[in-house]
Amino acid sequence: MKKYLPIAGAMLAAAVTHAHAQSSVTLYGVADIGIEYLNHVPDATRQSSNLFRMTSGNIAGSRWGMRGVEDLGGGLKGVFVLEGGMVLDTGMASQGGRLFGRKAYVGLDSNAFGQFTMGRHHNLMFDLIITYDPMYFAPKYSAFSHDPWLAGRVDNAAKYTGKFGGLTISGLYSFGVDSTVANGSEVPGNSRVGRDMSAGFSYQAGKFRFGGVYDQLNGNSASKASLTERRYVGAAAVDVGPVTAYLGYRRLVSQLVTTMSRTDLMWAGANWNLAPNFALTGAVYKTNDRTSARDPISFVVSADYRLSKRTDAYVTASYTKNKSGSALSANGYDGSVLPGENQIGAVIGMRHSF
């Protein structure tokens, strides 16, 4: 027995080492914070005022998360992601205080057939179109300001993504996008309440790439379950040396809102890598309201200096021109600009990834 114990111990150690090598859990995150200036912000008496403030998540949402993978053999893997957002200047959780409000899902990944996951996900517009926005749907000063649903998240969702050469295809079905709304999702006898259905693709051929997404969202109450909000999104990008040029379009047709129910959002811009650690970005975003003359347009410039592979400093500035009473601020329709007033916004900050 003593003769075989060392052999058995070696075999057990080898098995544990092999299992460890085939499975992993990674802790990761982003910490982004800066100082922002905005003009024409309404004060307590609805007068125009300047605002200086500290803000979290300016060019990337501050977050922390865990992702794991286990090799199940035969090209099949088990995967999971748990990711929570945070407001860095206060230490509070974002996404309504959810522990893992950004992502929370588990599923299977196959080398041959793609990935299938279930849980809380980003929508397909974020997955497939984000790289076609010069500002990458930054929480501030990007296409996200004109339409936050471009980077929306959905509860109770099943998602499939397959990559076949230069083509990526994806589909998503949610049984109810927001479980925090009472009777707003997964309602017995009414499967349309809060339902979201989406499909899209992205294709890359050399230095040129393009993509498209269709997204349909139903109302989050029984009385609005038959009403829909549809988005049609298409975008393209091309690399020309150190410069990448972008072009995008989103059509919105909504029965869920009474204002801006039919709009076109268009954007164009470019990113210029002047040096390995320095880049400039410029973009213009315009919303065309088909039901009124409220057509805001915003102009954005940004400079990013990479201090290391994980730490960078940035300066971003925006000029938003409002028309006919529109009230788009540098940060979206959040009430931080007086209706019809133009706004200048600027933020200087730092981002660290781990």
Automatic annotation (TrEMBL):
Gene3D superfamilies: Porin (2.40.160.10)
InterPro entries registered for this protein in UniProt: Gram-neg_bact_OMP, Gram_neg_porin_domain, Porin_dom_sf, Porin_Gram-ve, Porin_Neis
Signal peptide residues on this chain, from the entry's feature table: 1-21
GO biological process: monoatomic ion transmembrane transport
Keywords: Cell outer membrane, Ion transport, Membrane, Porin, Signal, Transmembrane, Transmembrane beta strand, Transport
Bilayer disposition of the protein: Multi-pass membrane protein
Domain named Porin: residues: 10-323
Subunit structure: Homotrimer.
Protein name: Outer membrane porin
Organism: Cupriavidus taiwanensis (strain DSM 17343 / BCRC 17206 / CCUG 44338 / CIP 107171 / LMG 19424 / R1) (Ralstonia taiwanensis (strain LMG 19424))
Species lineage: Bacteria, Pseudomonadati, Pseudomonadota, Betaproteobacteria, Burkholderiales
